[in-house]
Amino acid sequence: MVAQLRTVKTVETPYLPEVPMSQKKQSAAELTKIYEQMLLIRRFEERAGQLYGMGLIGGFCHLYIGQEAVIVGLQKYIQSQDTVITGYRDHGHMLACGMDPKGVMAELTGRHAGYSKGKGGSMHMFSREKNFFGGHGIVGSQVSLGTGMAFGHKYKGDNGVCLTFMGDGGINQGQVYESFNMAALWKLPVVYVVEDNGYAMGTSVARGSASGEFHKRGEPYGIPGRVVDGMDIFAVQEAAKWAMDYVRKGNGPALLHFKTYRYRGHSMSDPANYRTKEEVEKVRSEHDPIEMFRQHILLKKIVTEDAVKAVEKQVKDIVAEAAVFAQSTPEPDPSELYTDVLI
Amino acid sequence: MTQTLTVREALRDAMAEEMRRDESVFLIGEEVAQYHGAYKVSQGLWEEFGDKRVVDTPITEHGFAGLGVGAAFVGLKPIIEFMTFNFSMQAIDQIINSAAKTLYMSGGQMGCPIVFRGPNGAAARVGAQHSQCFASWYAHCPGLKVVSPYSAADAKGLLKSAIRDPNPVIFLENELIYGRSFEVPTEDDYLVPLGKAAIVRPGKDVTITAFSITVEHALAAAEQLAEQGIDAEVIDLRTIRPLDRDTIVQSVKSTNRLVSVEEGWPFAGIGSEICTMICEEAFDYLDASPVRITAEDVPLPYAANLEKLALPSVEKIVNAVKTVCYK
């Protein structure tokens, strides 16, 4: 039985003034687009997993399956001047930022047509054009970097906001708090997003964090936070609107704590023996972000079954095309070994 | 035309000129604004450029180094001051993993125009944690440039070039020479290119390579050696990475002898690199085994006598030169 999708009441820090959400009705086209984006990430990641299994993708490959509603929900309130930065579980963010699935998949297979010419791999892709700044493999480092990008927005006065993602593991790094301190001190336009999927690699939140109330981690610095069901796209959107508005108005940083879940292991080599199959199956069958959303738009008759099927076909084709491209496009020329070290 | 400036003033002038020239250049670090820098290098900058462009940070090296790199990613040109480079070890992950590697990892998309600067190496009686040379640490890493000037003219010209460089540059200063005075050209835009060493004393009998404060020791040693009939050539490396291999190799090919001097430790140091390079490129020209003068292979002690023994000195250089000259 799939849970009814509803906007979960968000929890906020006590001193935070209520910022009313203008419940703008979303059109069928918008909702269809959301479905398409979430499904694209899901199917892309499934295909990446297959290619990894076939030995076509090497090294580390961290899949975003299960967490799709977080980035897609936030995307609604990202403006053209805004910037995005995240850690190593980054394929979903790239696709949501509008990066070409072919270029992302080709990077995964280490080809010259990949976003980093095949020199970055799964954890290191960037697109200046789409304002996506990586793709960083050192846990927590992107938090200081994102704070600096926010410093840049403020310095240039471009009204931009930097969305800085981290996981429930990353939030325990020391530099996160160095960044919180400076961001609050200088009222930098940064939204810190904690994607809490329950496990920092194999260590559950309960085993790795003295408190799992990550939305409160900014409180000592005066950074307001909310904890939100990250599987519920409408809840994500509502929280995103609050945070982006709050930050864009010059109030300084905000912190969003999304409770989400990853169905796959930490990386492709992780059999995930630290949790039960039943736990994974329960989330998948009862609280899957895409399935809940699909049932919602069908039950409410917002989108027709045919339209949903058309999206599914379209996504399947995009992913298939990306996979073919990623296997057929050439590897980088050996001369590329020595380029891009310095400008 | 020249004017007499201290190294401290020359560094300040370099930053001021570049900040006037380019709105995207800013200075950030501990005590750089209202305190004018822990060593008064940023004297007057806060007054001229204000809070926006001269930014005092909390004591948070890892965080503000990362912040600077992020700002560089979005098009600003930060100058990050470390109160001393010893504290950069808190931040070394951001310097190497983010600043140095991201251009490559992004297939050339993500340039990082940033300068990390501050005093490096031993000061005087400040103990092991505040007295380390990081030249070989940073010079080890592709994606970085590493500069370490001696004179005020080079300090100014190299810092201006470093700020304009589109790559991350590590700029290693030395506290003990901040107050030394030198003649500095008065021309409007005095630039010294990165990657070029300078022969600061020509000679024909032996090549001495040095950088930062050790240039002073090397020049003093050369004077003493001249009195003893040995004509030493002293090369100020100025830039450690990219190393000016041509200047060093050509010099050794003419003198046939090499002594390298640095304040870093011996193992995998700058001297090791230079000796290897000479073995690879000028082996047949050598009339004696090259000799390295380095800090002794110990954490720097506090006691005055031990500290003196641990660091390179004029006497050690003179003796090394005599050894390679078989005198």
Question: What are the salient characteristics of this protein?
Answer:
heterodimer, A: 343 residues, alpha/beta, Rossmann fold, seven-stranded mixed beta sheet, two-stranded antiparallel ribbon, 11% strand, globular, B: 327 residues, 2 domains, 14 strands
Task: Explain the overall architecture.
The complex is a heterodimer of chains A (343) and B (327). Chain A contains eleven helices and nine strands. Chain A has 343 residues and is an alpha/beta fold. Chain A has a single domain, classed as Thiamin diphosphate (ThDP)-binding fold, Pyr/PP domains (Rossmann fold, 3-Layer(aba) Sandwich), CATH 3.40.50. A seven-stranded mixed sheet of chain A has the order 1-8-9-5-4-2-3, sandwiched between helices. In chain A, strands 6-7 form a two-stranded antiparallel sheet. Chain A is globular. Chain A starts with 10 loop residues before the first strand and ends in a 15-residue tail after the last helix. Helix content of chain B is 38%, strand content 18%. Chain B has helices spanning 7-21, 45-53, 61-73, 92-100, 102-105, 135-139, 152-164, 213-227, 245-255, 270-282, 304-310, 314-324; strands spanning 2-6, 25-29, 54-56, 77-81, 115-119, 145-147, 169-173, 181-185, 198-201, 206-210, 232-236, 239-241, 258-261, 291-293. A seven-stranded mixed sheet of chain B has the order 3-2-4-5-7-6-12, with helices on both faces. A five-stranded mixed sheet of chain B has the order 9-11-10-13-14, sandwiched between helices. The radius of gyration of chain B is 19 Å and the shape is globular. The mean pLDDT of chain B is 97. At the A-B interface, β3, α5 and α6 of A face α3, α4 and α5 of B.
List the helices and strands and how they pair.
The complex is a heterodimer of chains A (343) and B (327).
Chain A: E1 11-12, H1 28-53, H2 68-75, E2 83-86, H3 91-96, H4 101-108, E3 132-135, H5 141-156, E4 162-167, H6 174-185, E5 190-196, E6 199-200, E7 203-204, H7 205-208, E8 225-229, H8 233-251, E9 254-259, H9 277-286, H10 289-299, H11 305-328
Parallel strand pairs in A: 2-3, 2-4, 4-5, 5-9, 8-9
Antiparallel strand pairs in A: 1-8, 6-7
Chain B: E1 2-6, H1 7-21, E2 25-29, H2 45-53, E3 54-56, H3 61-73, E4 77-81, H4 92-100, H5 102-105, E5 115-119, H6 135-139, E6 145-147, H7 152-164, E7 169-173, E8 181-185, E9 198-201, E10 206-210, H8 213-227, E11 232-236, E12 239-241, H9 245-255, E13 258-261, H10 270-282, E14 291-293, H11 304-310, H12 314-324
Parallel strand pairs in B: 2-3, 2-4, 4-5, 5-7, 6-7, 10-11, 10-13, 13-14
Antiparallel strand pairs in B: 1-8, 6-12, 9-11
Helix pairs in contact in B: 1-7, 3-4, 8-12, 9-10
